[in-house]
Amino acid sequence: MSTLKTTSDVSGQVKKLTILKVYSLIYIFGCLGFALLNWKVLTYEEGWGMVGMIGLISLGLLGLIVDFILIKLIPTKWLFHLIELLIVFFFSIELWISFKK
Among residues 101, 24, 36, 3, which one has the least CA distance to residue 68? Predict the structure, then answer.
């Protein structure tokens, strides 16, 4: 019985919402919404705007992959959340700097 409980705890750990997972999902949905609202502009000429949007969405998917790897590698919650906060903080600063240009 305790083995089943341990197994369900491990599988439930992947399904929990984390800081990086929520941030990555918001980022992906924001990119998809922007692409849908600006479809004509992004597909104008040869469609290089859509190629750029696919690249940006892949950054969001990379965030989900990093979150999965961190869940598997880091057992302590405070260190896990600290690392995720640092990743989100630096990514947000990078986005802010790129929008300021």
Answer: 24
Confirm if 70 and 20 have CB atoms less than 8 A apart.
yes
CB 56 within 8 A of CB 38: no
Give me the half-sphere count of Cα atoms (radius 13 Å) on the Cβ side of residue 73: 11
Sign of CA dihedral 73, 10, 67, 79: negative
In terms of residues, how long is the chain? 101
Query: Can you give the pTM of this predicted structure?
Result: 0.76
Tens of pLDDT, residue by residue over 38-73, are: 888 888 888 788 888 898 899 999 999 999 999 999
